């Protein structure tokens, strides 16, 4: 059974994914908190006054400013001291952020907590996919990587399930327990990745790490260890300039950057940040709390789809399917708000459309665009520039998210709610076209094979370039040639 050799690998993956949950709680934290901070009831609102629309915008977007910076310090830590130390360090600002906001009485303390939480979240998005990819086998790397999607979804779901029914203080104290649990568990269970250990010349420790991860003896891991050595032997010290100079790395970088920008320009973060306010403005029959909770359940359930099909269907098909599904759902949501805001027709008979559209959007997002860009980022780059690329892509992600969430309300004011969702829909459609043409399929390929695919385009092209001495026929006799002529 495949289960036995990956049992400890799976344990490490599940443990490290607690950090993913802690990070994505930060994204949907605002949805149940906004109604409390807008309240005039001092027993509900610790500020003692309703927040302004400008403060609303900063609470939603400041987390992204922290996330822009987060990849840089934690990447340096992971490169110098190891992936395990880097991940453990990320838990600390998460704990500080949640405890700070639990006892905040001033809007600026909330701002501080949001920035600090964003700092940790940005670091997590940079290191988590890399750690999981480096401890997984080629045959199940896709499935292992996309378990992130499940735990991200749990993080997104928890604020909808807990936040509306607890005080801000209890809510944040509860959230602080998640990174604390990760820190203690991963400190005991987690192992350093064999790729990192081999990369710094500690081959004995790399071998022991592989043996523990695969639950095998020395002989059982030798083939994989040799593959890691061969892959690392190709790499010199990497710099960002190497990504720009080398065609295959430049191609990988452009693909990852475009997919990440497309992921956030789909409106995913804006929708999760403002889910309850969206339902309140739609005036659905269900309360905003219950509607948001239903969408959160859909988000959680749908997150289990991608890990079990990604290594069968492939990254490319799931990405295209995801983009087209998001396009259809956002188009429908835009139509609802257009009828509500710009026509005299009643929406009484179509009040089901907002919740249906958003459930369909969440499911579509979860099966592809929510996770695959991060998986590709961990797969498309060689070890010497992987950290640089991951940090750059992660920072780009959060810059885009900041712009979308900070100006979401402004987009609604100037474009109308229908226009805003149609803009997001157009982005999803363009992303589907881009994915069909440019996104490579990495299913079942080793890191070395992925680099060859990017460099040579296909195996045939590679073999011909590596073997420039063709056979020719002379007087019906096949003769071998070399660069200097006939042999």
Automatic annotation (TrEMBL):
<keyword id="KW-1133">Transmembrane helix</keyword>
<dbReference type="InterPro" id="IPR003663">
    <property type="entry name" value="Sugar/inositol_transpt"/>
</dbReference>
<feature type="transmembrane region" description="Helical">
    <location>
        <begin position="109"/>
        <end position="132"/>
    </location>
</feature>
<feature type="transmembrane region" description="Helical">
    <location>
        <begin position="317"/>
        <end position="339"/>
    </location>
</feature>
<keyword id="KW-0472">Membrane</keyword>
<feature type="domain" description="Major facilitator superfamily (MFS) profile">
    <location>
        <begin position="10"/>
        <end position="443"/>
    </location>
</feature>
<dbReference type="InterPro" id="IPR050549">
    <property type="entry name" value="MFS_Trehalose_Transporter"/>
</dbReference>
<dbReference type="InterPro" id="IPR020846">
    <property type="entry name" value="MFS_dom"/>
</dbReference>
<dbReference type="InterPro" id="IPR044775">
    <property type="entry name" value="MFS_ERD6/Tret1-like"/>
</dbReference>
<dbReference type="GO" id="GO:0005886">
    <property type="term" value="C:plasma membrane"/>
</dbReference>
<feature type="transmembrane region" description="Helical">
    <location>
        <begin position="388"/>
        <end position="408"/>
    </location>
</feature>
<dbReference type="InterPro" id="IPR005828">
    <property type="entry name" value="MFS_sugar_transport-like"/>
</dbReference>
<keyword id="KW-0813">Transport</keyword>
<keyword id="KW-1003">Cell membrane</keyword>
<feature type="transmembrane region" description="Helical">
    <location>
        <begin position="168"/>
        <end position="198"/>
    </location>
</feature>
<feature type="transmembrane region" description="Helical">
    <location>
        <begin position="420"/>
        <end position="439"/>
    </location>
</feature>
<feature type="transmembrane region" description="Helical">
    <location>
        <begin position="85"/>
        <end position="103"/>
    </location>
</feature>
<dbReference type="InterPro" id="IPR036259">
    <property type="entry name" value="MFS_trans_sf"/>
</dbReference>
<keyword id="KW-0732">Signal</keyword>
<dbReference type="Pfam" id="PF00083">
    <property type="entry name" value="Sugar_tr"/>
</dbReference>
<feature type="transmembrane region" description="Helical">
    <location>
        <begin position="351"/>
        <end position="376"/>
    </location>
</feature>
<dbReference type="GO" id="GO:0051119">
    <property type="term" value="F:sugar transmembrane transporter activity"/>
</dbReference>
<protein>
    <recommendedName>
        <fullName>Major facilitator superfamily (MFS) profile domain-containing protein</fullName>
    </recommendedName>
</protein>
<feature type="transmembrane region" description="Helical">
    <location>
        <begin position="290"/>
        <end position="310"/>
    </location>
</feature>
<feature type="transmembrane region" description="Helical">
    <location>
        <begin position="58"/>
        <end position="78"/>
    </location>
</feature>
<feature type="transmembrane region" description="Helical">
    <location>
        <begin position="252"/>
        <end position="275"/>
    </location>
</feature>
<comment type="similarity">
    <text>Belongs to the major facilitator superfamily. Sugar transporter (TC 2.A.1.1) family. Trehalose transporter subfamily.</text>
</comment>
<dbReference type="InterPro" id="IPR005829">
    <property type="entry name" value="Sugar_transporter_CS"/>
</dbReference>
<feature type="signal peptide">
    <location>
        <begin position="1"/>
        <end position="22"/>
    </location>
</feature>
<keyword id="KW-0812">Transmembrane</keyword>
<keyword id="KW-0325">Glycoprotein</keyword>
<feature type="transmembrane region" description="Helical">
    <location>
        <begin position="144"/>
        <end position="162"/>
    </location>
</feature>
């Amino acid at each position: 059974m495949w289960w036995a050799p990956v049992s400890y690998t799976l344990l490490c993956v599940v443990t490290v994914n607690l950090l993913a949950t802690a990070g994505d709680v930060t994204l949907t934290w605002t949805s149940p908190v906004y109604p409390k901070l807008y309240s005039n009831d001092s027993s509900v609102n610790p500020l003692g006054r309703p927040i302004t629309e400008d403060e609303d915008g900063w609470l939603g977007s400041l987390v992204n400013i922290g996330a822009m910076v987060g990849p840089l310090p934690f990447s340096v830590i992971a490169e110098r001291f190891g992936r395990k130390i880097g991940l453990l360090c990320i838990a600390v600002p998460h704990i500080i952020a949640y405890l700070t906001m639990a006892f905040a009485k001033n809007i600026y303390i909330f701002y501080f907590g949001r920035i600090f939480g964003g700092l940790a979240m940005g670091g997590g998005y940079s290191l988590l996919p890399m750690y999981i990819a480096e401890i997984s086998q080629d045959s199940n790397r896709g499935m292992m990587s996309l378990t992130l999607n499940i735990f991200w979804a749990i993080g997104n779901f928890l604020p909808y399930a807990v936040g509306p029914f607890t005080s801000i203080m209890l809510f944040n104290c509860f959230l602080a327990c998640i990174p604390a649990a990760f820190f203690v568990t991963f400190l005991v269970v987690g192992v350093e990745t064999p790729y990192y250990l081999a990369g710094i010349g500690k081959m004995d420790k790399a071998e022991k790490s592989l043996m523990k991860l695969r639950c095998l003896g020395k002989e059982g891991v030798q083939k994989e260890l040799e593959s890691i050595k061969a892959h690392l032997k190709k790499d010199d010290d990497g710099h960002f300039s190497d990504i720009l100079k080398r065609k295959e790395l430049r191609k990988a970088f452009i693909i990852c950057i475009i997919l990440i920008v497309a992921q956030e320009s789909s409106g995913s973060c804006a929708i999760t940040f403002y889910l309850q306010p969206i339902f309140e403005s739609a005036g659905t029959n269900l309360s905003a709390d219950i509607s948001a909770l239903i969408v959160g359940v859909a988000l959680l359930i749908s997150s289990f789809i991608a890990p079990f099909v990604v290594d069968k269907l492939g990254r490319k098909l799931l990405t295209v399917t995801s983009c087209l599904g998001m396009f259809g759902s956002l188009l429908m949501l835009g139509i609802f708000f257009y009828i509500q805001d710009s026509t005299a027709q009643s929406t009484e008979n179509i009040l089901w459309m907002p919740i249906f559209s958003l459930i369909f959007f969440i499911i579509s997002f979860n099966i592809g665009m929510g996770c695959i860009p991060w998986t590709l980022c961990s797969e498309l780059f060689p070890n010497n520039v992987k950290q640089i690329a991951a940090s750059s892509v992660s920072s780009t992600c959060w810059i885009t998210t900041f712009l979308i969430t900070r100006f979401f309300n402004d987009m609604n004011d100037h474009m109308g709610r229908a226009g805003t969702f149609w803009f997001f829909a157009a982005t999803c459609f363009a992303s589907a076209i881009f994915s069909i043409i440019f996104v490579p399929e990495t299913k079942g390929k080793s890191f070395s094979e992925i680099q060859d695919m990017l460099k040579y385009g296909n195996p045939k092209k590679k073999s011909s370039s590596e073997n420039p001495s063709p056979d020719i026929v002379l007087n019906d006799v096949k003769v071998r040639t070399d660069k200097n002529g006939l042999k």
